[in-house]
Automatic annotation (TrEMBL):
GO terms for cellular component: chloroplast. It comes from the Eukaryota. Residues 140-212 form the DUF2470 domain. It comes from Actinidia rufa. This is Proton gradient regulation 7.
């Protein structure tokens, strides 16, 4: 949610029809969405139930989605309203009318890793207690740099660190976080797969990511050249994205 700033807010209008509006939003420290809705779009019914749907593009290969179910509320406490108002203005760097500020009180969250995949329901308490990934602000840039300058290493990672019974012809990093990275790999005979390759240890900053990646790159090269025996457990779990002919 912190990586996105626009979503679709859906509510019931006064005549009972659902209405989805594109909105900008910010989140507070507990992940509560703060939205700005101008006067002409405030056609809400007495039923405050609403959803905020947000999606994030990852390396052009995957679109994780998050749908928050809750109620659209106007903070009644003056100090609380000021706090939400300040958070929104800080996020976008511009002044907005305090009267336009609303929050979506989170009841539960539905999360999907990509289109057409099964989703998972998350309770409001688990959502509020979740810790944002420390790499979130620069993960996209790191992925782009690696896919641009280290394609040979990325392909070698799949062939060395993953237990495959086929050869990978093309590979691409999709995302990176503190525990490892997600890869999209292609085999002309077998189809398209996604695999999760963990770091040797948890990383917390950009320096740690690059250090771990470089160390894994060197090890993969040595194993490929038979200079080093593979003394690590290979990843066995693959997710089939699509098969040839589909």
């Amino acid at each position: 949610m912190e990586l996105s700033s626009v979503g679709t807010l859906s509510t019931l209008t006064q005549d009972g029809w659902p209405l989805g509006l594109g909105v900008r939003f910010a989140v507070d420290s507990e992940g509560t969405p703060i939205v700005c809705v101008n006067a002409s779009n405030r056609q809400f019914s007495m039923d405050k139930r609403s959803t905020l749907h947000v999606q994030l593009e990852q390396s052009g290969s995957r679109s994780p989605q998050c749908t928050i179910q809750g109620s659209l509320d106007k903070p009644e406490e003056r100090m609380l309203l000021k706090k939400f108002h300040s958070t929104f203005e800080k996020r976008f760097g511009k002044e907005v009318n305090e009267d336009f500020i609303y929050i979506v009180t989170v009841e539960r969250v539905f999360q999907m890793e990509d289109f057409m995949e099964d989703g998972t329901w998350i309770t409001s308490s688990d959502y509020k207690l979740a810790n944002p990934d420390p790499l979130r602000d620069f993960a996209e840039r790191i992925v782009e740099e690696i896919n641009t300058h280290n394609m040979e290493d990325v392909r070698r990672f799949c062939n060395i660190f993953v237990d495959l019974d086929f050869q990978v012809s093309e590979a691409k990093m999709v995302w990176v976080d503190r525990l490892g990275f997600d890869m999209r790999l292609i085999s002309p005979q077998n189809g398209i797969f996604e695999v999760r390759i963990p770091f040797p240890r948890e990383v917390t900053d950009e320096k740690g990511v690059k250090s771990s990646f470089n160390g894994m790159s060197q090890l993969a090269w040595e194993v490929e050249k038979n200079y080093h025996a593979p003394d690590f457990k290979k990843v066995k779990q693959l997710k089939n994205i699509t098969c040839r002919g589909h």
